[in-house]
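Figure 2 data, in text form.
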Amino acid sequence: MRLLRLLYTTPLRIRSVFRRDRVDQDLEDELRDHLERQIDANVARGMSREEARYAALRAFGGVDQRKEECRDMRHVNLVDHGIQDLRFAFRQFLKHRGFACTAVAVLSLGIAGSAAIFGFVDSALIKPLPYRDPSRLVTIFSARPDLAHGQTRGAVSYLDFIDWRSRNRAFESIAAYDVRAGFTLTMPSGSEPVSGLRVTSGFFRTLGVTPALGREFLADEEGRSALPAVMLSYRAWQSRFAGSRDILGRTITLQSPWLAGAEPHVVIGVLPPDFHFALADQADFWATIRGSQPCWDVRGCRSLQTVARLGPDVSMRLATAEMTSIIEQLRAEYPEHHRNPEIGKLVPLHDVVLGNVRPMLLMFLGGAALLLVIACMNVISLLLARSESRTQEIAVRHALGASSARLVLQFATEGFLLAAIAAAVGLLLASWGMQFL
């Protein structure tokens, strides 16, 4: 029976919410018909028409009260009151635009600043790096034992790197990039400096990045006699070559500042649109370490920094011990280039990207929370100050029969509407702020 009653009353309650005017009109017609019947009955008892009407109204107990009782029987008062409170709140905000705009501006700025900083801190501290299995990525360098503790980055020469790569067994792959960035791009319209990096052939494979178009560098595209090849960032592909899919195989002329002469490089691939390497400036052109360059032929010239991927089931301690052993072997073989004793050190790539900004980011996060609290307290102060000017309105509504709970619900609805508008504006501003950060 209860289920049948629910199936019967649910459509009626939905109709009462979404077709309220029609339901109220039906109720008013029914009550009017009932009142007219009572008036006719009183007239039949010998009363005049006017006396019969007053007698029917007294017996009825008030039409508006009976309407409210019938509405209460629908059990949709909460929805009705919510709709009424929202309409009233909109009218109040339109009437007092200065207060509404001030409150929305204060709260939206607090939400925007807090959300933007939290999003930035979340991307830096919480979210993993945008590479495959980023927890296995590390940077490797040699350091003096007395300085290794506080050191998070270090450089290696190209010749030492080749030995590291060939002798290690703890890493799935090791790659490196030259810290001396930049190229000169020669086009029919002239020459201009562009951002770029020279990397070893396994660089993108080590990071776990798959090109959006084409392929990555092969092993024979690195070294003194390798043919010049280049990969483009997605941004450069779109802005300089209009996203043309026939870019593969085309040649572009690039020159490194420390290499003599410009060379035509064959475009072999395009990187994904979301790829970014945080340890170097935004690079649009990626070429391999190739050709003859004095620094790359000297073990004492340390111009490369490394990125390595730990092998399966290989711990940081084991990999560090192996790298220290390799460094000692090279020191014994080339003492003139490795005069000081050094040990191998591994640092997770995530920590290298953050560097020493972790405490600053945590401080920003605390400041963002405090900013939001201050904004909320300011808006609460504005609402309390405004409530003092509404004492007459509250007294009139009490006199008309509004309960304290009903008034509290009205003020809560106004606060909710104010917070919703401020949240929408604040999140829009926060999205712009996070993109900027």
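Caption note: The chain is about 55% helix and 15% strand.
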